[in-house]
């Protein structure tokens, strides 16, 4: 009998009270009474893990062990020790029984009788109700303690404060760390009075080698912003200030002030008036942030990448009429999280926008370029007679190998060679047959791709004719939409521009699959040199050469936006 024991308690307090040990003692006593033996590797326990979740280390090891058909029976004190929810209980019982492992409960033995199954369902529902009831009682008890001012809303104190190690959750044990409180006061003064930016404050903290709140980490803008927006530095601890949403798109939201719970007063680091001025400046900066500035339209917004470092480029206007695309790595190490600044030059936005739009118009008005690129991407156009010649060669080779196998078999039957020699030669011939069969499959696949390329070429020409009629009269919004539709990325490397197009595979192109004709811009691929355009004012003299690098054909399921 390959026996296993499983025990679980929900809280660390129960674990410290040896609740699991008591369960294991009962299980071992029952096993000895039955004459069963259990090894140490088959004892599974979860100390302080909720039965509402299946992510428990002891339970996972038990399930892995049962999946190997290494267990015959599992002893558990009660069904709620296995899981709280009835659905989880049924899931685990079915999983274990399908591996040939029988589950036995000491307190509530179960059989396949319908009455026992109904009782199991009722007990599972009661256990789930008990857990919900316990959770609600704990929530109300915690809320009462917070409102009474006897419980801290956090276990890790904010930067600038320390907790009493003997009373870690008592608000009366909170006291200031003088050195950290001085840093907090400096941050508020610099931001409110000296008008330093969040990035400037972060840089100052790093340059002054001030220890960050968490060991092993670095000062960042988010940490500084959390300090400047925490009202505890005005002398009051609040609970329920932040609401966090779970699941996809997890975010933090500040609740209305009337929903905050005032827990207890502490020593103030800054005045309320200074705190309010900091909040007003933060709100003003959010309103006039660069991301909200739509006064300067960029035709290639979010599509330009730096070919030197690989980061994306953002728009920047040095003065009215002089707009550029700038690599994010040139802004600051705080933005790029890198130690060095990218040496790439600024890219004149007007010249790059005009050049990319001109190249896009040229491509749409000369669709034969796309067809030639499609053929070049797959090794050139195949003539039908060449394809048929290769097929005939492969078929002749396969027929020759088949004749050799027949002659080899006749020689073995005539006693010319022994069995070992026959098997060796037969194996060699079969391997050669498999190699020819693989070549034939590759040839057919290439023929299918060439047929697909011909179909794509016809569809591309029809699509280009449809959209090229209104290119001259297109508005800025229409140009932007067409660029989003047909251009995947524009990579600029030291004056050379690479345009990575996305070509539609149907005449309409509005709901069909897309084929990307670009490999990664760092790959070594052949180039097609297009027209050149000189830089404008405010940039180093030179030329921007347009290149179209066609790589392997890759089909994806991404669809374009609505038509232009």
Short structural summary:
The protein has 564 residues and is of the alpha/beta class.
Description of the structure:
- It is a single chain.
- The protein is of the alpha/beta class and 564 residues long.
- It has 4 domains: 133 residues, 3-Layer(aba) Sandwich (Rossmann fold); 128 residues, Alpha-Beta Complex (Hect, E3 ligase catalytic domain fold); 157 residues, no CATH class; 89 residues.
- It is 45% helix and 17% strand.
- It contains 16 helices and 20 strands.
- Strands 11, 15, 16, 17, 18, 19 and 20 form a 7-stranded mixed beta sheet that branches. Strands 2-1-3-4 form a 4-stranded parallel beta sheet, sandwiched between helices.
- Helix 13 packs antiparallel against helix 15 and helix 14 packs antiparallel against helix 15.
Roughly how many Å apart are the termini? 73 Å
Largest sheet: 7 strands, mixed
**How many H/I helices?**
16
How much helicity do the residues have? 40-55%
Helix and strand content put the structural class at: alpha/beta
Give the amount of beta strand, in percent.
Answer: 15-25%
Outline type: flat
Could you tell me the radius of gyration in angstroms? Answer: 36 Å
The average pLDDT is 77
Number of domain modules: 4
Tally of strands? 20
Outline the low-pLDDT stretches: 505-564
Oligomerization: single chain
């Amino acid at each position: 009998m390959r026996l296993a024991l499983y025990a679980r308690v929900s809280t660390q307090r129960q674990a410290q009270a040896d609740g699991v040990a008591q369960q294991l003692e009962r299980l071992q006593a029952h096993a000895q009474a039955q004459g069963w033996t259990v090894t140490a590797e088959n004892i599974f326990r979860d100390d302080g893990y909720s039965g509402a979740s299946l992510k428990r280390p002891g339970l996972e090891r038990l399930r892995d062990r049962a999946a190997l058909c290494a267990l015959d029976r599992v002893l558990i004190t009660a069904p709620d020790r296995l899981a709280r929810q009835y659905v989880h209980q049924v899931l685990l019982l079915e999983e274990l029984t399908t591996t040939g492992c029988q589950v036995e409960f000491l307190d509530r033995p179960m059989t396949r009788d319908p009455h026992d199954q109904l009782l199991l369902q009722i007990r599972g529902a009661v256990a789930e109700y008990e857990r919900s009831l316990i959770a609600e009682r704990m929530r109300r008890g915690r809320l009462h303690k917070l409102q009474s001012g006897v419980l801290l809303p956090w276990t890790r104190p904010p930067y600038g404060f320390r907790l009493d190690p003997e009373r870690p959750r008592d608000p009366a044990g909170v006291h200031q760390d003088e050195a950290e409180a001085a840093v907090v006061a400096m941050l508020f003064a610099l931001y409110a009075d000296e008008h330093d930016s969040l990035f400037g404050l972060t840089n100052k903290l790093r340059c002054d080698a001030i220890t960050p709140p968490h060991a092993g980490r670095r000062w960042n803008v988010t940490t500084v912003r959390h300090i400047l927006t925490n009202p505890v530095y005005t002398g009051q601890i609040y609970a329920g200030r932040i609401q966090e949403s779970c699941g996809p798109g997890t975010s933090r939201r500040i609740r209305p002030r009337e929903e905050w719970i005032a827990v207890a007063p502490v020593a103030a680091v800054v005045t309320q008036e200074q705190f309010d001025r900091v909040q007003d400046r933060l709100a003003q900066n959010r309103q006039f942030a660069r991301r909200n500035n739509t006064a300067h339209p960029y035709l290639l917004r979010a599509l330009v990448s730096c070919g030197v470092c690989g980061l994306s480029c953002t728009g920047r206007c040095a003065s009215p009429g002089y707009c550029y695309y700038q690599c994010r790595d040139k802004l600051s190490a705080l933005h790029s999280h890198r130690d060095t600044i990218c040496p790439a030059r600024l890219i004149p936005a007007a010249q790059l926008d005009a050049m990319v739009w001109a190249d896009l118009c040229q491509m749409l008005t000369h669709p034969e370029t796309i067809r030639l690129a499609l053929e070049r991407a797959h090794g050139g156009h195949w003539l039908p007679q060449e394809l048929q010649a290769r097929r005939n060669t492969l078929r002749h080779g396969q027929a020759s190998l088949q004749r050799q196998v027949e002659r080899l078999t006749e020689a073995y039957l005539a006693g010319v060679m022994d069995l070992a020699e026959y098997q060796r030669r037969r194996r060699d011939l079969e391997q050669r047959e498999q190699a020819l069969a693989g070549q034939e499959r590759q040839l057919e696949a290439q023929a299918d791709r060439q047929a697909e390329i011909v179909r794509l070429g016809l569809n591309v020409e029809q699509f280009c004719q449809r959209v090229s009629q209104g290119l001259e009269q297109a508005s800025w919004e229409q140009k932007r939409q067409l660029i989003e539709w047909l251009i995947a990325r524009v990579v600029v490397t030291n004056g050379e521009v690479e345009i990575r197009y996305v070509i539609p595979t149907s005449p309409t192109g509005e709901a069909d699959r897309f084929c990307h004709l670009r490999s990664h811009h760092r790959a070594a691929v052949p180039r097609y040199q297009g027209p050149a355009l000189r830089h404008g004012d405010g940039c180093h003299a030179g030329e921007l050469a347009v290149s179209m690098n066609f790589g392997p054909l890759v089909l994806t399921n991404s669809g374009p936006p609505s038509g232009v």
